[in-house]
Fold:
Amino acid sequence: MFTQTHSFQFLVLFFKQFKKSNADSHSFVLEGERNNTIEINSNDGTLYTTGPLDWINKREYKLQVKTLDSAGKLLEGPFSVTIFVDDINDNRPQFNQSEYFGKVREQSRPGIPFLTVYATDDDDPSTPNAQLVYKIVQQIPNTENVLFFQINNNTGKISTTINGTVHLKADEKIEYELLLSVSDLGEKAFSSNAKVFITVTENLWKAPEPVNLVENSTLPHPHYITQVRWNDDSVIYELHQRERYPRFPFVIDQHGNINVTEPLDREERHEYIFFAVAKNNLGNPVARALQIVVNVADINDNPPMCPLTLSVFEVQENEDVGSTIGMFVATDNDEPGSRNSLIHYKLLEQWPKLPKENMFVINEYDGNIQLISGGLNIQDNNEYRLKVNVSDEGKPVLSNVCWILINVIDINDHIPFFEKSDYGNITLREDIPLNTLVKEIQARDDDQPQTGSSAIEYQIIEGDPNHMFIIETNPVTNRGYIKIAKPLDYESFKVHDLVIRAENPEPLVTGVQYNESSIARLSIIILDVDEKPVFPNPIYQAEVFEDVIIGTKIITIVATDPEGDEIVYSLEENPRQWLRIQENKGEISTVMELDREKENSYQVQVVAKEKNNPKMSSSVNFILYLKDVNDNPPRLAKDYLGDFTVCYPFSEPKSFEFQGTDDDYSPGTAARLSMRHTNFPKKNSYVPVIIQDNGKPALEATVEIPVLVCTCTSKNQCQTEPAGTQGLPSIGMALGILFGVLAVIGIILAAVFISLKKKNKSGQQDSTTAERERMNA
Structure:
């Protein structure tokens, strides 16, 4: 008895014929699970179908075939026959609903599913006939031809696109309709359709209004200030600082309630900005973070502060009534521009009260001190002390008391005079360092010492239009120090004839004027120094396409020599030798092909030298930025050898994702390679794929994706031969070798016996020889 197993397609009428091995066999008989579909011709043993086979109803038939003699007695069999029914793509995929209804929150993150559609196919799930692909056929409305929704081709999960996240608005009250299709992967695919109706609802994940908190609050803490809410209760809330604060007195609970944990101080920080984040159980954010703004409102907790313990001013004894003596300015650390920091000044007391009780007045809002009465006399009183109250307008009002000292000084009735009016000539190199002391000068004043009337300030009134020099004064000795303020330039000024005047900070009394006694002169002669060439800019930049032709002029960089000497140019630090510079003109051009993939920016150093004195040189950097052109075809991101493995036998068609890349500027993308059927041999196959970039013009390349089909271990890894057996022959090879060896031995033995027979026919040799031959045989 034997078993035959066969696989047949639908509607095959004749698919197997059995032969009689016994001449007495009269007829064939078929028994088993015929299901009124499979019969046998009793005369010639042909199996045939009487109707269509249906893989869904019955996938295999177990039958027995036997033969009977003319009397109906069993002669042969029964022989077992198993018929497997192969599926063909004869079923359309069907959605489990003809219409779906979903809701999506406005501003939902793209790619997060909010609805899943589902379809089934009654064909064999292990074949492409039942592998389903979903897609959106149409979106209504779609006036801008921009899809707001997307569907996962494999899972049927629907989510918003980036455009949907931006443009979907609940207040527009638009119901969107999606026409979906689902199709199988059979060679002649079937498809069906369904509709999805989507309503856009309000997104609860919104930033709250800015919170205003009063500083130094006496409320119990922690204290609720605001709340954020995700669209459901499945998230975990966190607070993240925008910047690192010395202290961060805010927390958030599981309900999104934000609390302040301690009183705030506006003088420490007037505003806090941080973020509320909603995360799923995996710790991943489910939406963009919300910005939380907390403004700290000021209370009047800072009194005005005096600028100094004692503020000192001066007034001449002959000062006119109404003259300003000085500005007294207090400060307040409360919020600027508020009533809490608005300062009032009030003169409380003057001491001594001579010659009058009110000799001075202070402006209520700006602190300007003026002389309101005449009669100051340094002989009678050389100083006054003022007691001033400074207060704000906060609630409650806070105030402080400040003290002011006003010194009465002698009238400025003497002008400063120089001990010598001509300081001669001084010679300086033009490359002298800045702040170098050039000359000391001295003037004197006979007014009251250590007052504004005797203090001296030096001014250069002629000979220095570009302010190359400054004069600093010792406030104790009134000695002046002339120093270099800017680099000297022989080519601009060969001599500086300085005219210097000594002045008092206090005005002179009426009738007294400055004259030649307050004037001094100094001639500064500049020596020419051979200077380096000078570039007008600290750095030079240019941009070109990488495919510019060789010899293209890019930029001209020129320097000037202060002495007017001839300059020659060269390039240094030119590692790829892409550029050259015209020696006399400074024109930079290309001498080789540029390649952005090697250098997206190329930097060289331009050197300018005096032709007659090359040691006098200067340099500047030139950066050339290369703009990309599409000169590289795309390619695989890696070789993928061994990455894509399919285990045999197949449970279902597989798919693999591979990535492409391009040496040009555009980023790489990914694609998916899917099996359309499962009829693959066990070997390493190379699937040709065309990759095209988005350049203008577009470039493409054909690459090969390696896919290995093999028998796998339980860990889904390709099964390998046991160690040491890779070079051993198979059973068939062993039998072939054995039969070959036996054949060779047989041929040798036959040759020996034939040789002996010939020798016996030619005569007998002597007995010794004959015996030896028999022994040899």
Residues 1-13, 721-735, 758-777 have pLDDT under 50 and may be disordered.
